[in-house]
Amino acid sequence: MSNVTLCIEVAVFSPLRQTFSYLAPDPVPKPGTRVSVPFGKGKRLGIVLATGPCPEGITAKPVYQVLDAEPLLPENLQKLLEFGRNYYHHAPGEVWSTALPSLLCQGHAIPPPRQTGHILSAMAPRTGEGLRGRRQRDLLEKFRREGTVHEDSLLPPERQTMRTFIKRSWVEPAEVPPVPCRARTPAYHLGADQQEAVGQIESSRGFAPFLLEGVTGSGKTEVYLQVARKFLEAGLQALFLVPEIALIPQIQERCEHRFGTEHVAVYHSGLTDRERLLAWARAAQGQVRLLIGTRSSIFVPLARPALIVVDEEHDPSYKQQNGWLYSARDLAMRRAQLEKIPVVLGSATPSLETLQNVRTGRFQHLQLRTRANSAVLPKIEILPLRRRRLEGGLHPTLIQTCAETLEAGNQVLFFLNRRGYAPALLCHDCGTAISCPRCSSSLTWHQSVRRLRCHHCGHENPPPRHCPDCGSPGLLPAGAGTEQLEEHLSLRFPGIPLLRVDRDTIHTQRQLRDVLSAIHSQVPAILVGTQMLGKGHHFPAVAMVGIVNVDQGLYSADFRAGERLAQTVLQVAGRAGRDSRPGRVILQTHVPGHPLLGHLLQGTYGDAARHLLEEREAACLPPHTALALLRAEAHQAGKVHAFLEQARGCAPQGTAIQGPLPSLMERRAGFHRAQLWIEAPSRAMLQTQLDIWIPRLQAIPMARQVRWILDVDPHSF
Predict the structure, then answer these.
(1) Which of 178, 456, 577, 587 is the most exposed place for a label (fewest CB within 10 A)?
(2) Burial 612-631 (b: 16+ CB within 10 A, else e)
(3) pLDDT tens digits, one per residue of 295-332
(4) Average pLDDT of 172-195?
(5) Spatial separation of the C-alpha atoms in residues 687 and 89, rounded to whole Å
(6) CATH number of 116-175
(7) Which class in CATH covers the domain with range 626-712?
(8) DSSP count for the chain of H helices, then E strands
(9) Overall pTM > 0.85
């Protein structure tokens, strides 16, 4: 009989990189289950990662409680988290807490499968008497039409009405048999390229990565839906990833219209904690056939996964920017590989990394070369700004074109990726800009609320009466943001509806739905917005797009700036001319001869992407090399540089390191910031070096005096 004492390895939900050993209870909990354990003077929740003999030289404590009989995540998802933990070199407890709904990390139980719905009771009104409003009448009609209604099949306003029905005893619980998933509306007729794409994906076997590159308005979403239909009707599940919450309502409406609300769920940070847990549980239990979500939904378990779609795969929002710095797009590839299912990356402007994978034969390339419904790609024009008198920051020709477009009964979209009234408040006498006291950045002037705000740390204050340097009262706004553009256009075009869409005006999903509904009414209007309007949306009445400022992306210190500018211009341009109305796109710039703008004038992404890939190869930058950043910050700049110098000194021999280098924003929220660049010819070689380096970093004396994090495959500088 063995005398070996058995222990479990536990990762507590915290940023700590090490795991902890505890005596294994009987029965031994499986990896992936939650346990409550003694930790310091208190207790913490954590995840069981492994079981084995207790390490020598420690006195292992018993666990307080095992919370789960079975693992929270299936084996393949546990492997995905282990891969993500190792690839991004992050703390295991924080990896798991990122992947799980917050209520599970707080110890809440998984909701049981919901098998009941409601039917009308004997107390329900037999006529319209006693009903208040259209919603109550519509829901009563729904019950009479369908008999049994499941609450999950209702939209949020209908659920509120359902609660009223329950309170008044107009309905009573009833068993609901599973509803087969069948397409409820006919599919759109596919063009030749779309048919080819659907056929290629449907005929794939096992893991198969595809790039679906289609010009804006080419019908990529219809390809997703028709591929998904085959799997959903067979009882399998699909996961659709989108980069931002703002894009969910549009695709959610299409999916629910096609497959029914009871088979579709969404998962994103805009939901309440309870709503996220319910969506997570329904997907894990197989009650949801199609899950639509943002970045974190890549970790939601599916009972019968069959397809993963990553829409707008180029979008930098797929890269987490705090905590565990994972890429949801890249982990989607790994998850599809583990699940042995196809994964489709869709974009009109694919990332250079994805295009390089196509070049090397790792991805299959599917192309949609023309727009659906015979719509024509918009013509892109350049308006030089040199020595021209501007009106509210706009070229007179741009204003005249806007007037003509509105007179023709169409809509106009002005894109300016800068919130507020002006990016700075300047002294007219000495030129001093009012700066954020905590960041290396000027404060943005928000005239409507008379506040100066920092868009980096959130600091805000009222405007000073006099210049803090010279005492002059001559403080003037410099530059233009969406608020100023809205003000000028409303004065220039009185009586024309003007809709501004940015984070200062849109705070809730309801506000977003309302403004999108107003846009889709197709009445002549002016739309002013930031990135929230620039991608993924279908605006049939937009016939002209004005891109107010492209110059800020031409001379950035970030080597990805050119790629993002090309993607932004073509994505925003793609909002024009999506219906039978011809589209026109006008770029304002002080550098009309810039080579990148010359490529964009062709209206297609291929030439610009080839140009950018050649530049990257000549400069030995990703995707031709592998890159990681070691970022550090502290309230004292000396500590940051001391840590990074020590970190550089303990790097494995042969590691290519640059720095310490100041971050593009050297001070943010009161912290001084700098970084080291670590480069290698391949990801495999980079990982080998990082495996050796990270344990050494943790032992550096200065490591506890700064905040540091490793960013593998960084997207932001």
Answers:
(1) 178
(2) bbebbeeeeebbebbbbbbb
(3) 999 999 999 999 999 999 999 999 999 999 999 999 99
(4) 78
(5) 9
(6) 1.10.10.10
(7) alpha beta
(8) 19, 30
(9) yes
